[in-house]
Every structure is written in C-alpha cells, then in structure tokens.
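Fold Annotation — chain and its backbone

Fields — amino acid sequence, structure tokens

___
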Amino acid sequence: MEQALEILQSNDVTNPTLGMHLLYQKEQHIPMSISYKINRYYAQDEWTNDNAGMLTYHYSDSNPKENYLELKFCVTGNKYCYEKSCSFCKSQPTNCNGTQATADVFTFHFSASFLDQFTHNVKISDKKDEVLAFKYPESFTKTFPLCLKRKNLLDALLNHSYTGAMENIFINAKIHELLLYSLDCIVEEKEETFTCKFLEDERSRDGIYRAREILLEHIGEPITIKELSRKVAMNECYVKKGFKEIFGTTIFDFYQQQRMEHAKYLLYEKGLSVTDVSITLGYSSISHFSAAFKKHTGLKPCELLK
C-alpha cells in the first residue's frame, strides 16, 4: 500500500520520480455540490494490489466556511486501451501498443455547506455524525485499505455505459454511496451484519439495490413506493426498512437529494432554464420546484444559472 499512499500524498502525480503520465481525466465543480476529479495515469512500473484510500477532515473553528471533507483513492493494476474498437481482442493487432497498466486516482471534495443537508436537525450520536456535522474539533487524516465494496464503487465510476444526464445521475449516486462506506474507517470496522434479518438473503439485498437503480431511472418521473415494491417484487415494508439500513437514508430523502443534485447539474453545467429543469424533473409547477430546491440547497434555482 506504500506506493498508493505516496501517490495520494503527492501534489504532483506526474512527477518523473513516480513514473506517471496522464491518460484520462474527468472532473466536475458545481457550486454547493460535490467536486470530484478522476485521473487515470499510465504507470511505467506495473503495480498490482496496491490500493489505498485517504480521508481528510479539515476543521477550522475561526473560519467555518473553509471546513471540508475529502476522500482520495488510488487503485492500481487496472488496464486501459486507447483503441476502444479492439478492446476485446485476444492478441494485439499490428501497430498496437496494447493495454496500458494504470494507476487510477479519485478525489472527492465535500464542503461543510453541502454536508449540512445530511446533519441538519439530526441528533449527533457518534464520531461519524460529529465529522459530517463538523462538530469534531480537530482536523485529521486517516488512511485505509480498500474493501471490496469501495473497490467495486470506484470501478463502476470508470466503467459504465451511461452518457449525458444519466451519467451525472449515476456518478452522484455512486459518490454518495462511497461516502457512506468510507466513513466506516473513522471507527473500527466490523463485519457486516444486518438488523433486518431478511437482508441476510442475497436476493433481498439485490432487490434493494435494484430499487435504488429504478429510482435513479425515474428522476423525472416520480414513482410511488407501492409501484417500486411491485417492480422489485418485495413487500413495501421490507423495501422501506431494507433501503434505510443499506443506504442510511429513507427512500424519499434519497430520491429528493438525487433530484436536487441533478437539478444543480442541469442549471449550472447545461444552462437549462428554471422552467425547463422543473419540467424535466417532473414537478407540477415552477414554484414547487423552487421551494424544494431552496429547502435542499439554501439557494434559489436562478442563483445557479451562469
């Protein structure tokens, strides 16, 4: 894990001493939202199983606006090929360099104002809550190995078929899930157990994950819990309880949060009008959308228009 940590701690990953060359980059910086950067580097020395995560908690009592939480990950041993059309070939075609061994570096930045939506009017019960609410009085950095759950989420951010608006919805949902699981590193991680006994059945867990995917697919077409339960062939009560246990939030709160994050993207990145965004997200009126947006972000939708 030492090489991966060296990458996470370096301010210049392309420094020749690390032997790194940028292959691919994707980033997003939207006010009052998650800022992220995904960099894929060619590693001259092929590393395998050298993965690491880092959580940085920055706290300032004198300047609360500067408070933030940052997650950084380095995953090595993946492969990248420029020639997408031959990505499934078994042998290298003529004049092809083949796949490149990579080091993939992810950075996710969460401001205190963004995280406030999760802790507002919530009773602080443990250190994880203190960190999310910026009630823990000391800055710290913690490194940790990557568990399978976090590794799968990071792989999904690099390897998916979504484009355009659906890509934005997908990435936001995965980053929130990554934050949820990464906060476990703050306290001693325990073997995964479930309060809801029906979640011990893999098919039930798959149903809850499918329910989340359906919600994301219906960002602009609100769906009732009854309809959702029917689509995943599960009892309504099980769907609600299972969703809360796995994702740490209610179905309604998750759906609203994802709609508002997508609204920020449509307003700020795509330049859609408030009216168009309201219609796209399935609101019955602009006033209902504006009120929901203001409640979620503290801003009026027009304030995010460029």
